[in-house]
Structures are given as C-alpha cells and as structure tokens.
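Collaborator request, handled under Task 6.
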Amino acid sequence: MRVLGRLHSYAWDSGPVCVGLAAFIFALSGLSVKLLKGHVPEFEIVVCRSFLSFIACAIASYRNDVKPFFGHKQNVHLLLGRALSGSIAMAVYYFSIGLLALADAVTLFFLNPAITALVAWPVLKNNRATRRY
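Structure tokens returned to the collaborator:
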C-alpha cells in the first residue's frame, strides 16, 4: 500500500508525468473508438463516456467536499454552455475518428488550443504571454 501511495504522489506532483499519463489515456480512448467503429454507434460511445465522466467527477467532488455540486446559480448558464460545447466537441471528435485516419483526427482535435489562443486575441482582448513557464 505504501508503494501505491508513493506512486500516486509522484504522478500527481509531476507535471510531465500527468501530461504523459493523460495523453496515453486519451490515445487509448481514440483507439478504442476506432476499434468499435461499425459495432457501436459513435453517439452511444459519447453518451457512455459522458456518463462515466460525470460519475468520476461526482465521486471526486464528494471526496473533496465541493459545495454546491452544480455550481452557483449565477453561473448555471455558463456551466451548461460549457457542458453543451464540450459534449458537441467530443461527439464531433468521435465522429471524425470514424471518418478519418486516427492520426488525422487526433491532429485536428489537438489544434484546439492554438485556435483558442488565436480567437482569444480579438474576442477577449488577451495579449500573448511573453513569459515562459
């Protein structure tokens, strides 16, 4: 049990390990969607993934005593908009995996941060970060 505790602490305290682990899990997710193509509809995969994500977040929120669980009333419309856009993005990603080569679909999906940064300049009046972390 002590070894698992140290491994858990190492994984969460190391940024590169977290990023690598997340990328690996995300790659397995894309591969599983590609392998399930033709056997399970993409929309069903999105619903199942969303349900499992909700359960995991509910457990984590309960364990960390997050109150209120669904957010403050003044932010509900923002949270619902974020949930809807995230669900649409995941559905489009999974549909693209079914239509394109896996490498092409993943590459297009990961252009999202660059597009977000470009849109943030004129819309949010954000400046480019000049400092490196």
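The cover message to the collaborator said: "The chain has a mean pLDDT of 82. The CA atoms of residues 60 and 66 lie 9 Å apart. Please let us know whether this matches your experimental observations."
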